[in-house]
Design goal:
heterodimer, A: mainly alpha, Rna Polymerase Sigma Factor, Chain: A, 2 domains
Chain lengths: 169, 163
Amino acid sequence: MTQTEFLNIVMPFKDKVFRLAKRLLVSTEEAEDATQEVLMKLWSNQAKIEEYKNVEAFSMTMTKNYCFDKLKSKQAQNLKIVHTNYEDASTSLQKQVEAHDSLQWVAKIIESLPEQQKMVVQLRDIEEYDLDEIANMLEMNNTAVRVALSRARKTIREKLTITNNYGIK
Amino acid sequence: MVSNNIEALLKRYENGETSLKEEQQLKKYFSQETVAPHLEMYKPMFAYFLANQQEHFTKQLPIKTKTAFNYKWLAVAAVVVLTLGYYMKTPVVASYNEYAYGTYDNPEDALNEVTKSLNMISNHFNKGVSTVGYLNEVNKGTATLGYLNEIENTTGIIFKNHQ
């Protein structure tokens, strides 16, 4: 397989891999590294690519597993530097700006969801995959995906309602 | 009318029962400028989903095409080495002949030749040794220098007196 052939296969879904990685790892740099890692793994296993029924779904599963490994090794570290650690108690200017930026709110709400729900929302509402495809990618069954999706959507709606009504009611 | 339909869709959406097509419909509805006031809170959510689809992976992939080792080149290299080896063989023999110049295959001839040249060497050597005989004069000279010791003895006595 030549480089161009490989890129033709990979091109359509590399952004999706990146976005899923970013959803899980939050930081753009880390998501870029993860995407690169996943794609390089695919490249080094190129002989097997033809064997996979669905390279895209396989890559998404790989991304999920890779990000989980990353998250696990991060948690194993004693010192945890998460962006929530250096939150200012006083309402900073940035916070005020963010409060106006409602999209930022949605991002924050999704970020607060459990990992599985995050992934389901990402794959369904942003990448618009079939429920069956998602089940296949996340190695879950169809019903579990639906339940996770429903829970995530309800949580997002509830939290958005609260922020939306903040200061009104 | 429309909002009724949307509300029903939203309910099913929350239960995860909508199809992708229906979800498209929702996204389209909420991307409008104005939506029903009581549904306002859904707007950022769907806007976020749409905005997020635009994010791209821009990093360059460091892909290198691995060229499988080609055994043909091994054969080519072998042929080159062999021909070079054959080509080099002739000059090596010639240089050996040059190196072996003046040697004898017959031991008797070799012995005669060696004694002849050794005789010549010893002749010249003896000549050289006879000229070295002049060095005896030097020895004589050093012997006369022995008198200097006498001077030292006397100076020694003088210094003793001074002390």
